[in-house]
Amino acid sequence: PPRTMADLGLTERQAEVLALLVAGRSNKWIGRVLDLAEPTVKHHVTAILRALNVSNRTEAAIAVADLRLALPKVD
User: What's this model's pTM, rounded to 2 decimal places?
Assistant: First the structure.
């Protein structure tokens, strides 16, 4: 199984979004912290869910734990 964000095809910015998503942050919060527009955050979340082959944020957090992915420190 993939072990890094690059193995999943995620960019550094998407990895940052994923880290905040796993921490339970809202799209609005993520946008403020990373200085992104909310639609951009939504686009990244969609790409993340697709890369992890999951359908929601909770499943994404579980997938991160199952894959033992190292998340960047953000926040």
Answer: 0.92
Q: What is the dihedral of CA 38, 44, 55, 6, to 10 degrees?
A: -160
Nearest to 40, CA basis, from 53, 51, 29, 31: 31
CA proximity to 61, closest of 26, 4, 18:
18
Each of the 75 residues of the chain gets a pLDDT tens digit; together they read 667 899 899 999 999 999 999 999 999 999 999 999 999 999 999 999 999 999 999 999 999 999 989 899 886
**Cβ–Cβ under 8 Å, residues 74 and 31:** no
